[in-house]
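During the no-cost extension, the postdoctoral fellow (Dr. R.K.) reprocessed legacy sequence entries with the updated structure-token encoder. One reprocessed record is reproduced below for audit purposes.
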Amino acid sequence: QFRNSYDNDSITYSPTGRLFQVEYALEAIKQGSAAVGLVSKTHAVVVALKRNAEELGSYQKKIIRIDDHLGIGLAGLAPDARVLSNFMRQQAMTSKMIYNRAIPVIKVANAIADKAQANTQNYGRRPYGVGLLVIGYDEAGAHLYEFQPSGSVLEYFGAAIGARSQSARTYLERNFEQFVECSMDDLILHGLRALRDTLPQDKELMVQNTSIGVVGIDTSFQLLENDDVRIWLDRMGDVANTRGRPASPGLTPATVEDTAEPIDTDV
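Re-encoded structure tokens follow.
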């Protein structure tokens, strides 16, 4: 059986200059359920689709609070996200203890980028198999950064990661010019519409499988789940109806999982 000679560790380059371990990590992100982030002048929002491994199991956590002004949405290997989120919390606490101020969002984003990039050049390590959307609000305003296991961090007006995220990106590219002046409410609704586009046609967003995280100029980081999400899904349905699209009926939890995807990495 053929075996790739250049994918045994994360520091061996192939003859074409590729690091296969990093590419495998990026592939793990594509297998995770989708997360969408978007930002205005005053607020940043991340929305995510939760999966349950089986009908009897609970839904996976997809959005993590880091600090009052900072949070993340994830796609990929959740245990790796837990390691990185704990590291980010340490950075945030250190900033408060030493400098008596909240850590700037760009600083904590660059810190995890450096940590991840070190794993691509030290023997015996592996890249983190998770992508993160980092949202926050600091003295410079609202921010959204996408983190990749290669150590790359870029700032975006809107970004989407995970399975079928290209559909969400298409929605964001069509509408991103509106985001700058959006209120927090409109920003959340834009995020939910983009997230809905990542679903197969026979599935729908519902209370159990949707998470919303929001932070802004007048809002500490809030995580909305379960019944707190219902009002936003209802509002999105009303907007859909006024635009000529019929509101889809809710689904039972048993029908949420998309069985067409080969593996569930959000575990």
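The first helix runs from residue 20 to 31. Strands lie at 35-39, 43-49, 63-67, 70-76, 130-138, 141-147, 153-155, 158-161, 210-216, 219-224. The remaining legacy entries will be reprocessed before the final report is submitted.
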